[in-house]
Write a structure and sequence with these properties.
The chain has 34 residues and is an all-alpha fold. Helices cover 94% and strands 0% of the residues. The protein has one helix spanning 2-33. The radius of gyration is 15 Å and the shape is rod-shaped.
């Protein structure tokens, strides 16, 4: 039970990290393309 909770929490953190990286890449791409 505790392992599942920790796993879902780490998964959520991973998704948030991916979103943050994707946003930075998107902004850098937008500034370079314009």
């Amino acid at each position: 039970m505790l392992f599942l909770r920790l796993q879902s929490n780490s998964l959520k953190n991973l998704i948030l990290l991916n979103l943050r990286v994707a946003r930075v890449l998107f902004f850098s791409y937008a500034t370079h393309s314009s």
